Every structure is written in C-alpha cells, then in structure tokens.
Amino acid sequence: MRKSWVAAVAAGLLAIGTDPAAAILKKDTSKLTPHEIEVRAKPISNFSRGKTDAILNGRLAWRGGLVLTSFSEYFGGWSGLRLEADGKRFVAISDAGLWMTGKLAYDERERPKALKETRIGPLLALNGKPLHRKRDRDAEALALASGALSKGTAYVAFEQNDRIGIFDVSDKGLGAPRAYIQMPDEKRRMRLDGIEALTVLKGGPRKGTLVGFTENPLRGDKAQRGWIWIKGVPRGFTMSGVGDFSITDAASLEDGSVLLLERRFRWLEGLRIRLRHIAAEAIRPGAEVTGELLLEADLSHEIDNLEGLAVSRGAHGETVITMISDDNFNRFLQRTVLLQFTLKERETADADSALSDAEK
Predict the structure, then answer these.
(1) How far is Cα of residue 322 from the mean position of the Cα atoms in its chain?
(2) Which residue, among 174, 160, 149, has the nearest Cα to 32 in the 3D structure?
(3) Binning pLDDT at 50, 70 and 90, where does residue 191 land?
(4) Which residues pair with residue 226 across a beta bridge?
(5) Bridge-based pairing state of the strands 163-170 and 173-180
(6) What CA–CA distance (Å, rounded) separates 324 from 306?
(7) In 3D, which of 212, 221, 208, 220 has the Cα closest to residue 159?
C-alpha cells in the first residue's frame, strides 16, 4: 500500500510539473523525421477500480478505454487531441514538440480497441525546420481551425514561448505554421501558466470562433482567464468556478457549448480530474463563467494526468467524449491512457434517472 501511495504522489508531482524530471525526461525532437510507429493497446474494462463510478448527474456513461504503450522513445507527453467527426482519424500533439496521427479502431461493441496507421513527426518553425529550443517546443493545446484532419488547418498553442500558430494538417501530419495569431495583452504574465486549452466553437452565435483558457491563474490573478477571438482580436473573460483545479483542455459541442477538462493534485488526496460543461451563451467578452460539473474522479478510477480532450459522434449519432493523458515520458510511474464516455442529452439522462428510481 505504501509503495502505491508513494508512486501516486510522485506521479502527481510530475503531473503538475513541480519535479525537474518532468522536463529532463522529454526527448529532443529537433532531429526527428516523420515515421510510422507501433502503438500497443491494452483494454480498460471498467472506469472504476472499485464498485462505483464517480459519474455526476447521470449525463455521462462509460464506453471503454485503453492503456497505450510503444517502443518508440518519442511516444508520450500527449497534451492535445482532436478526432474527426466519426471518431476514427485522430491528431495529437506532445509537449515535447511533436505530433501523432493515425486511426482509432473500435470493437463490435463500439469500444476503443487499437491505434492503427500511427505516425509521429516534429512540430516545425516558420522556416519549415524542427523547433530546436526546448522553450519553443512546449505544445499544449490543439484545435481544428478549418476543413478536416485529413486536409485542413489547425491551431496549436505553446507555453513558455507563448504563442498560437496556424498549421496545415493532413493524413501525413502537421506542416510548418502559416502564421501566428494575435495574443492577449496578458501574454507577458503567462510563462508556465499560459494557454493550455483551445477549441473552435462548433455552433451558437459565435460559430467558428476560437476560444482559449489559461491552465492556472496568471501572476496577480485569483482565477483562470479565457479569451474569445472576435475578428482576430482576443477579448477576455474570467473563469470563476474552477477554483484550485488547473484547466488542461477544452472541446466544443455542436451547440457551441464547451467542455473543460480539469486536474488537481494534493498530497493527502492524490490526483483528481473533473469535466465541466459551459453553456454557449456564457462565453462572451467580460463574462464571469462558472459552468456545470459532469464528472469528478480520483485515483480510485482509471485516470492519469489527463490533458487531451476531444468530441466526436458514435455510430448511432451519440456524443462521444475522448480523453488522453500526458505521461511526462515517465513510464515507470505514469501511463498513457485513452478514455471514452458517452454524453447523454439532458432529457435522456433525466428519463434514465427516473426509470432507475422506479426500479429501486
């Protein structure tokens, strides 16, 4: 028991970046060239390690998960994830400065089964060459800007050297950035608490608009900040409901509302993650945003340092939520896990809850 507790604490410290090893273990990708890798997948049958799942308000249902491993020394650190609308093709980015593309395969029960046709390669500078400095390679967030993952453009947000670039994306990976967009005036206060989450609104009055969130409160602030880019100009709002959790990723639903992935580590409780839902109308310049919690889980569940979040559709049109973890390249204490849930419409969740109560 003591050994597992120590491992959990060490994993948590790496997750929040307080251990220098989190940076030392990252691989130098400046000489990496795109190539295929093999990724092995071990199924996760249950989200809970015990008898119950920490699903809040009945809107989430467990679909399945995978523990992902690879012999490639570059595999790991996944901090951003996007899936095509059908949930099959994916693109992920790593905070070591690389991308991964491939296909997510499913079994006959529509549970994630394997990663196929997997390729990795380095993120590039404007000159088309790999990023050489460590502070330039810290990619933390990914959002599809236009088109599709097979042929489109994507936003990538970086920490340390804080910036957001527009990259071509295709089956072959990410190309060189076309340009960098205007950053908020608060950029000078970001450093390691910069923009950790990006999404493009899929619906609502501001459909097609980019939204970003800081991981933690900036120096001098008490809460995380968010920005919505209106005509290319970032306009700020405040996150008041996150508290002492960190924001690690965001994903838009088709109605323009947004899901936020959150994480916290404490010595006495270990690692915790949350999933928050923000209504479309709440995201506007000058707003104070709270949202509704959909999920909260701890180390009694199959979680790790979850940093990537994506939304897609299942075979029957249902909304599927996918999360991926950043193992900090620390394979002895942390894992790369991929988790999937179904998000029920509120009416369906209420009906299921009423039926369950009636059967008791």
Answers:
(1) 9
(2) 174
(3) confident
(4) 213, 237
(5) antiparallel
(6) 6
(7) 212
Place of tokens 């608060």: 186
pTM exceeding the 0.85 threshold for the entire prediction: yes
**Is the Cβ–Cβ distance between 296 and 327 less than 8 Å?**
no
Which amino acid is present at 170?
S
Q: Please say whether the beta carbons of 141 and 251 come within 8 A.
A: no
Place of tokens 């005036």: 185
Closest by Cα among 262, 348, 301 to 44:
301
Which amino acid type is present at position 87?
A: G
Tokens (6 digits) for 200:
């493009």
- What would you report as the CA-atom Rg of the chain, rounded to the nearest whole angstrom? 19
Q: Which of 14, 3, 72 is nearest to 327 (CA)?
A: 14
Measured distance CA(324)–CA(339) in Å, rounded:
7
pLDDT tens, position by position, 245-297? 999 999 999 999 999 999 999 888 899 999 999 999 999 999 999 999 999 99
CA distance 314 to 82: 15
Query: Cα dihedral angle (325, 326, 330, 334), rounded to 10 degrees?
Result: -20
Contact at 8 Å (CB) between 166 and 181? yes
Q: Which single residue is written with the structure tokens 């970001």?
A: 190
What value, to the nearest 5°, has the Cα angle with vertex 266 and ends 75 and 56? 85
Residue with tokens 């900036």: 218
* Backbone dihedral angles phi then psi of residue 15, each to the nearest 5 degrees: -60, -40
Q: Which residue in the block uniquely carries the two structure tokens 């608009």?
A: 209
Which tokens go with 284? 């506007």
Q: Which residues pair with 122 in a beta bridge?
A: 98
105: left (phi over 0), alpha (psi -120 to 50) or beta: beta
Q: Residue 31: phi, psi to the nearest 5?
A: -110, 10
For the record, the structure tokens of 233 come out as 């100009």
Is pLDDT of 3 > 50?
Answer: no
Backbone angles phi, psi at 174, to 5 degrees: -100, 135
